[in-house]
Amino acid sequence: MRKLIFILLLFLPLTILSKEQYIYSAVSVGNKESTIAQHKPLLNYVTDKTNKKIIITYYENHKELVEMFIKGDVDIAYLGPIPFLALKRKYSNYEPLVMVREKDGKSSYRCVLFAPIDQMDPLKNIKNIAMTNPLSTCGYTFVHSALKKKGVDLESIPYSYVGNHEEVAKKVIAGLFSIGATKEDIFEKYKNLGLKAIISSDELPAFIIVANKKTMSQNDIDLIRNSLLKIPNNTLSILKIGKNGFDRFDESKYINFEKLLDSNILKRIYE
């Protein structure tokens, strides 16, 4: 009888048990310290509302974060659209929690290609290009598309991945690169130091917070999602990441975005 019960248990669906602590990680826009500082108030709020301790860990680049999520070392991840597409391609045990609104209240954002303000014709005779991580949407994907529309082949120009978005802006300001590309809010932060916009992208699907179904119970996933969707206005005002609120996940935005990417870009994402 015991043997029969044991055999039956082997075929029962595996239930993920609720845990008291979860690991959260985010794609880096600034350095390690600023990335943690930006997310900490939000994580403190979620911890308070759910009684689930959320601990932040830091990875240097998008690819490593996606790999650690798949491995099960990360329970909750904050991802841009390109890292999210890479995750979708390689892993099915994820569940979107929310989309992150930008300051205009929309769950979308833009990338900006920029140059030093004193360059008269910045797309002529480009010496080199500064970009953030390969899986950053404002990195190779945006720059390749933006230059292609202007008749410029990115692969004919030296380019370097210099780190986070702020590092891109700083390298161009320092005169080390002819042009660079970042999220619009980072460009706005640094433009008064001598930058000018050349090309802005169309609206891109928002950053997203994703749960790992392999390591989290469905009850905890729902609990955390609801806590994010119901943040009161007086709490939003003290947040950094998430200060404009959150929307429910809209898969159509990401499907339409993926359709806009050419085969070479998709190959780079999915390799």
TrEMBL record:
Pfam families: Phosphonate-bd (PF12974). It comes from the Bacteria. Gene3D superfamilies: Periplasmic binding protein-like II. SUPFAM superfamilies: Periplasmic binding protein-like II. This is Phosphonate ABC transporter, periplasmic phosphonate-binding protein. It comes from Calditerrivibrio nitroreducens.
